[in-house]
Amino acid sequence: MPIILDNDAADDLIGLIDLISNPKVNLLGVTIVGTGEVDGLTGAQNVADVCQFLGKPAMPIAYGNNKPCDINALPFPDDVRQSVNHFLQGKGIPKNQTPNITDSAVLLIKKLLIQSQRKVTIIATGPLTNVAEFIIQYPTLKEKIEKIVIMGGAIDVKGNVQALHPNSKEEHVELNFAADPAAVDLVFKSQVPILLVPLDLTNQVPITKEFYQALARQKQPGLILIHQLYADLLKSCRDENEFFENFCLWDPLAVRVAIEPQLVVTEKVALSVDAQTGRIDREKLQSKTGSIDAAMHLHHKEKFLMSYLETLKKQLMDHQVKISQRTVIQNQQFIDPPQASLESSLQFK
């Protein structure tokens, strides 16, 4: 499954770990949306560091514009962005000294789509600025997109924008959509197939104490990193009750649904977008044209977190074995050719 991850390098990094270690996935590249929770270049370096940590040091990465498609946007607060900028500090992740980073997310998406022999799924777990700008600039390449899986929006539940913007009156708006409402409107109208993972779904998977404590017991390096990321988020709260009452499996769940859509029950919905605020509302579904598949219910939601942990654990262990085997083969190839050449020359004498 060829995939491009468009993200803002917050809990999206957990989804990145899932994608790199998943044998079903061919992660073509990663783009950072500059209107999200992280500064573009900093987020790109953080992603490059995680990719190197997982044996993919040359992963193509690019960051995008830090300005939304329209002035009507509610940016993530500066203190949030600064916190996410430093997400990897103190976690023992070596810096990728030669990252494969460029400064145009749109051009990287274009390049990867053209190079791919198959249609590509784009997973967008931050604001939709990069995706919208790509569609504006290269509309003929839309046919190369299998679908766009979007983490964002709130359909039949309250939004979360007031969690970071307490003075906002928009109680039904989700943060990613608020950060670039015009981009949401454009992507929804693009006629590219969309699988929406809204708060309606992610609210069904709150981070539990059982899951957090199970993560803390893990010895696998990738899982240790995930625990460290959640530990930082817990420290940012007043107490652990605030954390466990408010934090859900947001971006990682969207990634998992993109890989395993059978995990959810989807509903075909017609949605209107308020391009000023990012609020989405149901409309009468008159036809399938222009409709969106929304993931509304998760199968076995009570057991999902622990099952997810076991899946990640197995993936990462298998991935680690593959990386080790690849290193051995590369070392042998470096050492063996002169001997092979000598043997060949002797055969001719």
CA-based gyration radius:
21 Å
Say what the CATH topology is: Inosine-uridine Nucleoside N-ribohydrolase, Chain A
Query: What's the CATH superfamily, by name?
Result: Ribonucleoside hydrolase-like
Q: What characterizes the major β-sheet?
A: 10 strands, mixed
Ordered list of secondary-structure elements with their pairings:
Layout: E1 2-7, H1 12-21, E2 26-32, H2 40-53, E3 61-63, H3 78-85, E4 101-102, H4 105-115, E5 120-124, H5 129-137, E6 145-151, H6 161-164, H7 175-178, H8 181-188, E7 194-197, H9 199-202, H10 209-216, H11 221-235, H12 240-246, H13 251-259, E8 264-273, E9 280-283, E10 292-298, H14 301-335, H15 337-347
Parallel strand pairs: 1-2, 1-5, 2-3, 3-4, 5-6, 6-7, 7-10
Antiparallel strand pairs: 8-9, 8-10
Helix pairs in contact: 1-13, 1-14, 4-5, 5-8
Can you characterise this structure?
With 349 residues, the chain is α/β, with parallel strands linked by helices. It has one domain (2-347): Inosine-uridine Nucleoside N-ribohydrolase, Chain A (Alpha-Beta Complex). Helix content is 45%, strand content 16%. The chain contains 15 helices and ten strands. The protein has helices at residues 12-21, 40-53, 78-85, 105-115, 129-137, 161-164, 175-178, 181-188, 199-202, 209-216, 221-235, 240-246, 251-259, 301-335, 337-347, and strands spanning 2-7, 26-32, 61-63, 101-102, 120-124, 145-151, 194-197, 264-273, 280-283, 292-298. A ten-stranded mixed sheet has the order 4-3-2-1-5-6-7-10-8-9, with helices on both faces. The longest helix has 35 residues, at 301-335. It is globular, with a radius of gyration of 21 Å.
